[in-house]
Amino acid sequence: MTKALVAEQKKIQDAKLFINGEYVNALSGETFDSLNPATNKKLATVANGGQADTKLAIDVAQKTFVSGVWSNMPVEERSKILCKMADLIMEKVDQLAYVETLDVGKPIKESRDFDIPRAASNFRFFAEMAKYMVHEHYDMSKHMSYVQYAPAGVTSLIIPWNLPFMQLTWKASAALAAGNTVVVKPASYTPLSAVMLGEIANEAGLPPGVLNIITGPGGTVGTEMATHPSVRRISFVGESNTGKTVMRNAAENLIPVSLELGGKSANIVFEDADLDEAVAGSIEAIFRNQGEICLAGSRILVQESIYDQFLDKFVAAVKNIKVGDPLDETTDMGALVSSGHLKSVDDYVQIGLAEGAKLAYGGKVVADLPEGNFYEPTVLYDVDNSMRVAQEEIFGPVPVVIPFKTEEDAIRIANDSIYGLAGVVWTNDLRRGQRVTSQVHSGLLWVNCWYVRDLRTPFGGAKASGIGREGGRHSFDFYTEAKTITIKK
398-452: per-residue pLDDT in tens? Predict the structure, then answer.
């Protein structure tokens, strides 16, 4: 019996809706099952919220906002509560990581050592930053003007399934620090860790109604969160076509949106790069979290002069990736989130092969783990950038390796995509690194590293990868309304 099966026999708390500081059943009484991707067996029963539940949560959030219990609370007091939430997250790191790993399918070492600690850092960062926000002041001869950054109001947060707790806390901590009330919809595939934030909020002393969590389908819960007239901000992370739907729905009430959408990021390896560093970094950039990361360096562009050498080293490293039980400390890559997504990833591999791509390694489900959604780390090479596997987001452990001749060629290929979320450049010529990053049309770019995030910097994408920026001051700009006040002296 594997560790995953042993873990599944332990009781995982059923998930209810969290409204006005209380856990409640859906008004309909309906539920759905959250499954363990490593076994496709039931983990927990989840309340299936609907339109009526969502309206109730938004109404509660609106009344709480208008009451001023949170929005008018001195920022120092808000900060203390949010810092307490950060402390409680770290006190519960093992429990949260355990639930996150079982629900998502990712390795426990990623959940415990990165995702959950980062979630605590999110709360602590925005709680502290809120105390030191700079307000503008302008003096005139007979008048004085100043700018007040007031909380916007009820904020809808629609969270993806790949990094659920980290993404939830990244959005919620900033919105709450700014003084807003929040309604959250976690993804139906991975709702369990998000629901646990309600308990943490209560323990930290967050007033009832400030944070509300609704589990349920995007077609009803998500639509209501994007169309309700009391909602004043929407932050959505997910697939690009769904993001367009959210934006269309929000337009009816002129609700500002922040959209972090899909990616097909170029990972560019130049001939002067440190090859071992580039291989190790490229492995991390595509196989972390089973490749289920929007920032993944999924298009690996390699200069022709080192193409064969890079490919040999890269494939050799891929062969050492251990796929297995997510609760095993030695596992490098766990299960994909669902059986449907597993099929989608495999379908893309077959499409790539039919288009003329070559298979260097992998390309099938893991034979000795038949119950779960395990897919081999896969490498497609000699890919042309016009192929579907180079243009469409696979969102799995399947990089495509594309040769290029010159720096100009690399930039052209990198920009030949509807997406523009991220990119990586591997080179020992920092002038080249500067030239290339300045010409690649993406919101985030790294040189000789990947996935390094300073929370003070803006985060977001270009083109089909999204609209808006969050992070540091940019988060507060989004979650507040700038109000200019002029006084006669």
Answer: 999 999 999 999 999 999 999 999 999 999 999 999 999 999 999 999 999 999 9
The structure tokens listed for 450 are 């990947």
Among residues 398, 416, 413, the alpha carbon closest in space to that of 269 is found at 413
Does the active-site annotation cover 294? Answer: yes
- Written in H, E and C, the secondary structure of the chain is CCHHHHHHCCCCCCECEEECCEEECCCCCCEEEEEECCCCEEEEEEECCCHHHHHHHHHHHHHHHHHCCCCCCCHHHHHHHHHHHHHHHHHCHHHHHHHHHHHHCCCHHHHHHHHHHHHHHHHHHHHHHHCCCCCCEEECCCEEEEEEEEECCEEEEECCCCCHHHHHHHHHHHHHHCCCEEEEECCCCCCHHHHHHHHHHHHHCCCCCCEEECCCCHHHHHHHHHHCCCEEEEEEECCHHHHHHHHHHHHCCCCCEEEECCCCCEEEECCCCCHHHHHHHHHHHHHHHHHCCCCCCCEEEEEHHHHHHHHHHHHHHHCCCCECCCCCCCCCECCCCCHHHHHHHHHHHHHHHHHCCEEEECCCECCCCCCCCCECCCEEECCCCCCHHHHCCCCCCCCEEEEECCHHHHHHHHHCCCEECEEEEECCCHHHHHHHHHHCCCCEEEECCCCCCCCCCCECCEECCEECCECCHHHHHHHEEEEEEEEEC
**163: closest CA among 295, 270, 286?**
295
User: Which pTM value belongs to this model?
Assistant: 0.95
Catalytic residue among 292, 294, 376, 470, which? 294
8, 224, 260, 376: the catalytic one is: 260
Burial class (CB in 10 A: 0-12, 13-18, 19+), 336: buried
Instruction: Give yes or no: 76 in active site.
Output: no
Write out pLDDT tens, residues 170-229. Answer: 999 999 999 999 999 999 999 999 999 999 999 999 999 999 999 999 999 999 999 999
Backbone torsions φ then ψ of 39, nearest 5 degrees? -135, -15
Tokens of 76: 């120092």
- Give me 408's structure tokens: 């100009």
| Pair of tokens at residue 217 | 């389908």
Q: Strands 480-488 and 143-151: what pairing? A: antiparallel
Rounded to an integer, what is the distance from CA 447 to the centroid of its chain?
22
Q: Return the sign of the alpha-carbon dihedral for residues 403, 409, 415, 416.
A: negative
Quote the tokens at residue 202.
Answer: 């209560």
